[in-house]
Amino acid sequence: MTDQSSETPRTPQWSRPDDAERQARLDAMKRRATGLLAVALLIFIVAMILEPHYPWLGYVRATAEASLVGGLADWFAVTALFKHPLGIPIPHTAIVATRKERIGQILGTFVQKHFLSREVITANLRRVHPAERAAQWLGDREHARQIARQFASGLAKTLEALPREEVQELVGQVVRNRVRAFRVAPALGKTLAMALGDNRQEELLNAAVKLAADAVRNNRELIRDRVRAETPWWVPPVLDDKIYQKIIAAVERLLGDMVMDAAHPLRTAFDEAIKDFIDRLQNSPDVIARAEALKEEWLMDEGTGELSKRLWDSIQQAVTDYAGGADGAPGNKLHSPLDNGLSEFGVALQSNPAILTEIDDLLIDLTAGVVEKYRVEIGDLIAQTVAGWDPQATSKRFELAVGRDLQFVRINGTLVGGLVGLAIYTVTRLLR
After folding, report:
1. How many whole angstroms separate alpha carbon 423 and alpha carbon 431?
2. Quick one: which of 6, 64, 205, 404 could link to 43 by a disulfide (CB 3.0–4.6 Å)?
3. Tens digits of per-residue pLDDT, 242-262?
């Protein structure tokens, strides 16, 4: 079996919709150039025959003769680029077909030096301002929506392709490892210390006292019933009511004193208890060990595994819903927070020239570095590709691309040759 990787590149399919029209224009221009040459030949023959009778026709004959020479020379030169003139294998003809390897090398080297140099890449990228254009494009909310949906769609397909049970187990393992690495008690102590800094525990205590006072005030009947239920049967109702009134008054007075007196002993005790609790959370080995034991017990519970599974399912469902639309409905045209965020990010970039310049510098340096690193390989690829093309098809395509313009060379050669011939004949006659 033939190894496909070892085959040389075939000529690419260059067919274009306007090939027939281009061929027709090329053929028409060839007929014009050839017709002009035929006219020169006819004039030359007539002038040569009649010159003995009309000596002034020597100027016409010399002009037509030089036109023939110039036209034929240019016909040979143009034809030799693409094929052998008259089918004769003259050396150094059919240049495109027989020298396509060298043409490929020249083309590859030209592209490498003049298109893929760091200076050219940098100058062209600097001129188009890629960061600014990208920011303007992203600033359009519809474009931002397309980016977000494309990313979400690709991510959703990737997640759906993953084995569900194995991924759920992996997510659970990752969650457990992260939680195990997290020391609960010290982190809680630091959080409380930050939250209660600048004596914010006073605000907490005031809120708690007010909450307690409201609870007492709103539950008087419940407290009365509780006192009545706890009082022995032999206590008179009047005394029972006095006990209730004393309890309510004492509690309300205590709570009021705590609110009004910043130096109240209970407030001081509360402050000290809070500080001691925070200190023990961060520094007490016993408290830290108990917290870690509770954490480990929680991790070993079956509910933790179910939680990680639901977490994975929720993530996958959220990504799938987002890929279909902001609210999970396929084709939804509403803009989601991610769409808005991307769009606002693009708008913000446009208003910050310094960041745009830095992004341009980064993109230009990265792109120029990559191109400069691989430009030799790119030049070699061009040379090898051209060398592998079919000679006849390559020659035909080149002729179709530039052959019409080259026919002007034939026409110009015929006309200029005639003028030069006329000038030489005139000077020769004058010098006799």
Report:
1. 12
2. 64
3. 766 777 777 777 777 776 766
The alpha carbon of 31 is separated from its chain's Cα centroid by a whole number of angstroms, namely: 52
Specify the DSSP element, H or E, that contains 175: helix 164-180
34-39: long-range contacts (C-beta < 8 A, 24 or more apart)? 34/75, 36/71, 36/410, 36/411, 36/414, 36/415, 37/67, 37/68, 37/71, 37/72, 37/75, 37/410, 37/414
% the chain with pLDDT above 70: 80
The confidence score (pLDDT) of residue 104 equals: 80
Q: How far is CA 70 from CA 29, 41, 247, 284, in A?
A: 17, 12, 129, 106
pLDDT band at 303 (very low <50, low <70, confident <90, very high): low
- In whole angstroms, how large is the CA radius of gyration of the chain? 47
Q: Which of 28, 282, 298, 308 is nearest to 164 (CA)?
A: 308
The candidate with the shortest Cα–Cα distance to 78, out of 394, 405, 393, 416, is 405
How many Å separate Cα 430 from the centre of its chain? Answer: 76
For residue 401, count other CB atoms closer than 10 A to its CB: 12
pLDDT per position as a tens digit, 173-222 = 777 777 777 777 787 778 777 766 666 666 666 777 777 777 777 776 77
DSSP H or E run through 104 = helix 100-114
Distance CA 26, CA 403 (A): 7
Measured distance CA(161)–CA(154) in Å, rounded:
11
Q: Which residue has the higher pLDDT, 304 or 162?
A: 162
State how far the Cα of 180 lies from the Cα of 320, in Å rounded to an integer. Answer: 31
CB 8 within 8 A of CB 388: yes
Alpha helices in 284-352 (DSSP H): 285-300, 302-324, 337-350
Instruction: Tokens for 9, please give them.
Output: 């590149």
* Torsions phi, psi for 286 (to 5 deg): -65, -45
CA gap 189, 287 in Å, rounded: 11
422's tokens = 């006329």
Q: What's the mean per-residue pLDDT of the chain? A: 78
Tell me: pLDDT of 42 over 90: yes
Residue 23 to residue 401: CA distance in whole angstroms: 9
Burial per residue of 285-301, b for 16 or more beta-carbon CB atoms within 10 angstroms, e otherwise = eebbeebeeebeeeeee
**Surface-to-core class of residue 66, CB atoms within 10 Å of its CB (0-12 exposed, 13-18 middle, 19+ buried):** buried
